[in-house]
Predict the structure.
Amino acid sequence: MYVSLSGDEKSRALEEIAREVAECKKCRLWSTRTKPVPGHGNPNTDVMFVGEAPGYNEDLEGKPFVGAAGKFLDQLLGLAGLNRGEVYITNVLKCRPPNNRDPLPDEVEVCSPYLDRQIMIIRPKLIVCLGRHSASYILMKSGVRIRSRQGGISISAVRGQVFHVNYQGLSITVIPTYHPAAGLYNPKLKKTLMEDFIVIGKVLKNIRSGSLGLGS
Ligand code: URA
Ligand code: SF4
């Protein structure tokens, strides 16, 4: 059984996670990070955005998506009728991998319980996965079986699709899309990202009005 938390209780529970993350040494990434990046935004939101891991600027500032990809994310949020102040943004990994290399499976395994706890506290109606690593983690954990030949998930195969999943007992709509950084230098992916965020806005509107998904 899940007990809904008040806004203050959600804030406090997320702050507790941020404190744990600040002291965390569960994987090798603590030793090369500058600041941990637990997540940022409105604890009372109904939509969460989950990226991959902090990059160069995020590691310096301690906040998610503050670099070039973050500026583009702000534009994309606008296309969905959203702004940063009303959503919660976090990553699968809370510390920056050196040189922005891909997250390693053992890092995802030990860090993801923080993300799972954030999801259980916020209880969003919609999770938007930004990029392959986020989509792989969230969809696999939801029991969605779409694997590419390399294992994990092919982001081009799932992007823009609307999944209704059971995540740790919560009914959540999940929409994966490309990582915003992928759209910075690739006009085709940029266009697809913009289209996906328009879909995200429509789906959210339907969810908020009580009907699931894109509706008619
Ligand atoms: N890329 C991510 O995946 N997350 C961030 O916070 C910044 C860039
Ligand atoms: Fe801990 Fe996650 Fe940072 Fe690794 S990446 S040290 S598990 S908070």
About this structure: Residues 51-55, 58, 64-65, 69, 91, 181 surround uracil (ligand 1) (CB under 6 Å). The beta strands are 40-41, 47-51, 88-91, 126-130, 163-167, 170-177. The first strand starts at residue 40 and ends at 41. The chain has a mean pLDDT of 95.
